[in-house]
Amino acid sequence: MGTAWNVYDGNKMSSGAMYGRTLAELAAKDPRIVGVTADLAKSTNIGLLGEAFPDRLFNVGIAEQNLFGVAAGLAKVGFIPFASTFAIFACLRGGEQIRTDAAYQKLPVKVIATHGGVSFGAAGSTHHCIEDFAIMRAIPNMTVVIPADAYETAIAVKQCIDVPGPFYLRVGRGMEPLLHESEEDKWCKEFKIGKAMTLKEGNDVTIIACGVPTRDAYIAGDMLEEQGVSAQVINMHTLKPIDEEAIIEAAVKTRRIVTVEEHNVIGGLGDAVASVLAQSGKRCILTKIGIPDEFGPIGKPEDLYAKYKLSSQGIMETVMEIMGKEIEEDDWSDED
Fold first, then answer.
1. What's the pTM?
2. Given this structure, which CATH class describes domain 5-170?
């Protein structure tokens, strides 16, 4: 099995659609919730809020900087604004307003960014978003969450209401395969912002993934087991604040870590994990799977996943490569 996009299953799998429905349900209970869109209500699914509550969705037109300025203003007077646009427009075109208007004032602006990573593959490099993790995790006061599928998206949207300050949630375009069977499965019940989830136990290597590739990481874990490799798989859905304890425990337990992210290998999950390891003093082999420092080509998301080894097959092959590397005993001590 691997990542596949199927239009016939799109409605039931779409993280965006789940976000829109969940937001409308929350708004029915909380009058503080409002939505702001930059003429992308349908594409980002925040339009579902507008259908339920027409007077609580504001369309500022194709003006992303204004989008986040308006959202900050609404937050300033007591509302909880959800601002939605494509991830590339949020982090780059509207980045200054997110930073200065929302984050600087610690305002509860919830940025729900869709079409993240290479999910809008056919639109080409201008619409791929492989820089947002690096940008958003560097903004003070910002919480950064990357759900693995639609069910995690719904839970994160519910939980973010109680997260103080600005919040960045990145999802794909839609039609990405589900990791979970329902919002009631054991992993979803354990979902908590800031706390990683162990999807599979293992002793030889740890795969730490976030976002859509998490499903492929889980499948790769099964494939590795068939090859005699015991792989631990961790869903690091929260990039900031990152679960440092889970990372350090993985380093001590398996001494080999592979990070998997739909993002530039610079500044994202891999670098966040590396920073934790460097400060901890724990030594291990670390390999980062992601988009190399280049602009990606036009293509179907599944083809781009295969190109950059984000597929289950690519993850398995990368893990097998590092399994052949020796760890010098002098470089490790149980007392470290």
1. 0.91
2. alpha beta
